[in-house]
From TrEMBL:
Record domain Fe2OG dioxygenase: where: 247-348
Keyword terms: Dioxygenase, Iron, Membrane, Metal-binding, Oxidoreductase, Transmembrane, Transmembrane helix
Residues that span the membrane, as ranges: 84-105
Domain of life: Eukaryota
GO cellular component: membrane
InterPro entries xref list: OGFOD3, Oxoglu/Fe-dep_dioxygenase_dom, Pro_4_hyd_alph, Pro_4_hyd_alph_FE2OG_OXY
Annotated source species: Pangasianodon hypophthalmus (Striped catfish)
PANTHER family assigned: 2-OXOGLUTARATE AND IRON-DEPENDENT OXYGENASE DOMAIN-CONTAINING PROTEIN 3 (PTHR14650:SF1), PROLYL HYDROXYLASE-RELATED (PTHR14650)
Co-factor requirement: L-ascorbate
Protein name per Swiss-Prot or TrEMBL: Fe2OG dioxygenase domain-containing protein
């Protein structure tokens, strides 16, 4: 007979045979008490494996600790999620606030007064209350604005005429042009943008002027000016003979080039009567199309509760009383080139200017 052995803590200890075929095993330590179990030597291997596996058995204390760890991890994850959610909400709120402030600053709640795609057969008129600006100047009954507003017409100048006028502007401005995004050509005074200054086109290019312009160019210019004057008088109930052309009246070319001087910063809100005291009525004849020839560049009337925009169209005439009831600006041109003519009128004959003529 094989001598019995004692397995204790994974160690085998031989016992005297007198003890018989039975051994006693110390099987539990964690509670500081001992339970003795009889086993035969044939079951030694199985018991040894059981004792080794017993080290992986979870006790009640271990389960409690694991639960606490899991609870802590869950709480940290929940805290991280709440922090992330708060950050996202804060960012969204900040963006919304910035957008709101920007819309307040630019007053860009837009109402389109006339879109480019529309073709008006009759002037579209929007009446506004006259400001007190005109009371600061000499009054001219039958002309000084008492009925104020703004209007747009597509029946004063034809598309073909607008194309000819555009070519006049292009030929003249090819001789110079601003370093920035806004250039002018004034056929009355001869002023032409040249770099960061202005030159007199009739003096600077006196030998070439008749190669650049023709008598027919100036005849068309004068005829268009007369038609614009008449539609203003009819719309506002004026005596056309009491309305006079005034300065500045000029071609403008605007593109997206960065401004180099204050003369290039055409986009600022302004009031014509404040800028030029002689102005009583202002008009613009557009020579290119919004959305086709250029982007941006819309004409914006800035009213207290919203903006009203005019989308340029070749041959379209926009005109309005020049006081603070018609605060306005031009949207920055984003791409392409915008051509127009500003034609200005006064009721004061002392500020009248003559139609231009070819030298």
């Amino acid at each position: 007979m094989q001598s019995p052995t004692l397995i204790a803590g994974g160690n085998r200890v031989a016992l005297p045979a007198s003890r018989g075929a039975v051994c006693l095993i110390c099987a539990w330590r964690s509670r500081r008490w001992h339970a003795w179990f009889p086993v035969s030597s044939a079951d030694e291997w199985k018991f040894t494996m059981a004792v080794q596996r017993r080290g992986n058995v979870k006790t009640a204390d271990t389960s409690i600790i694991e639960k606490k760890i899991k609870r802590g991890i869950a709480q940290r994850q929940a805290s991280s999620y709440r922090g992330y959610t708060a950050l996202v909400l804060a960012l969204v709120g900040t963006c919304a606030l910035l957008i709101w402030l920007w819309s307040i600053w630019t007053n860009d709640i837009m109402d389109t007064m006339v879109s480019r795609g529309e073709i008006l057969t009759q002037p579209r008129v929007f009446v506004v209350q006259c400001s007190e600006d005109y009371q600061k100047y000499k009054q001219f009954p039958g002309c000084t604005p008492t009925k104020c507003g703004r209007a747009v017409s597509d029946s004063v100048v034809t598309t073909d005429e607008a194309q000819i006028l555009r070519r006049i502007a292009e030929r003249g401005l090819e001789l110079g042009g601003s370093d920035g995004g806004a250039s002018i050509l004034d056929l009355h005074s001869g002023a032409l943008s040249m770099g960061k200054k202005f030159v007199n086109i009739y003096r600077y290019f006196s030998n070439q002027i008749r190669d650049i312009f023709t008598e027919e160019d100036f005849e068309l210019y004068r005829a268009v000016r007369g038609r614009i004057q008449r539609v203003i008088a009819e719309t506002f109930g004026l005596d056309s003979s009491k309305l006079y052309l005034t300065k500045p009246t000029f071609f403008s070319r605007i593109n997206s080039t960065r401004a180099k001087t204050t003369h290039d910063e055409y986009w600022h809100p302004h009031i014509d009567k404040v800028t030029y005291g002689s102005f009583d009525y202002t008009s613009l004849l557009y020579l290119t199309d919004y959305g086709l020839d250029f982007g941006g560049g819309r004409f914006i009337f800035m009213d207290p509760n919203s903006n009203r925009t005019v989308e340029p169209r070749a041959g379209r005439v926009s005109f309005f009383s020049s006081g603070s009831e018609n605060l306005h600006r031009v949207e920055k041109v984003a791409w392409g080139t915008r051509y127009a003519i500003t034609v200005s009128f006064t009721c004061d004959p002392d500020y009248a200017i003559a139609d231009p003529s070819l030298p």
